[in-house]
Design brief:
heterodimer, A: 111 residues, mainly beta, six-stranded mixed β-sheet, five-stranded antiparallel β-sheet, 0% helix, 57% strand, B: 113 residues, seven-stranded mixed β-sheet, four-stranded antiparallel β-sheet, globular
Chain lengths: 111, 113
């Protein structure tokens, strides 16, 4: 069956450290993968997109990698801040404009 | 001020009643989506539409219905056949291009009592 898996347990880190979140998928062949941030009670907000022919993408303190052999994407936040605390969701293209999401990982950055 | 609007923000209904959630966008996007989110869970796709007068079932379409008569509007009806309708419902839209980001509304929290 098709699955998109993210760590269900919250990730707790200290301010200033690098947070690394994982997104694994099975039985999909996505042309791209996206990462979103969601705050409690709000809709997700787009952060980054990476295409299947790209290994790495950066935007300010954010970095995403995409390994189509491992069927995995890693999302890094460097120099993390308490304001980065949120749930982070990966999403991928399941074909024909169908966008499916992972379960999300909650990140808690403590001062 | 362009965006995607969901209404109402909170909705209460009695068990056995159908209820329609509104989603309107003025971004001129072709694609629109409905997702359901349960506490501590990710987003599960209910229905999506790539173009007016056409829509496809997502992964959990049973007990839901949609229409796409206008480009700007994609209402979702939660029918009495949906066994566990209490959830947070999110509507999104994107341009008709693979990889384009999805813009989300603020969500409707539906509680069925």
């Amino acid at each position: 069956s098709q699955k998109i898996e993210q760590n269900s347990e919250a990730l707790n880190i200290q301010e200033g450290k690098t947070a690394t979140l994982t997104c694994n998928y099975t039985n999909y062949s996505p042309a791209y993968l996206q990462w979103y941030r969601q705050d409690p009670g709000r809709g997700p907000v787009f952060l980054l997109l990476i295409r299947e022919n790209e290994k790495e993408k950066r935007k300010e303190r954010l970095k995403v990698t995409f390994d189509t052999t491992l069927k995995q994407s890693l999302f890094h936040i460097t120099a993390s801040q308490p304001a980065d605390s949120a749930t982070y969701l990966c999403a991928l293209d399941a074909g024909f404009q169908k966008l499916v999401f992972g379960t999300g990982t909650r990140l808690l950055v403590s001062p | 001020d362009g965006g995607i609007t969901q209404s109402p923000k909170y909705l209460f209904r009695k068990e056995g009643q159908n209820v329609t959630l509104s989603c309107e966008q003025n971004l001129n996007h072709d694609a629109m989506y409905w997702y359901r989110q349960d506490p501590g869970q990710g987003l599960r796709l209910i229905y999506y539409s790539q173009i007016v007068n056409d829509f496809q079932k997502g992964d959990i379409a049973e007990g839901y219905s949609v229409s796409r008569e206008k480009k700007e509007s994609f209402p979702l009806t939660v029918t009495s056949a949906q066994k566990n309708p209490t959830a947070f419902y999110l509507c999104a839209s994107s341009i008709e291009h693979r990889g384009s980001e999805a813009f989300f509304g603020q969500g409707t929290r539906l509680t069925v009592v």
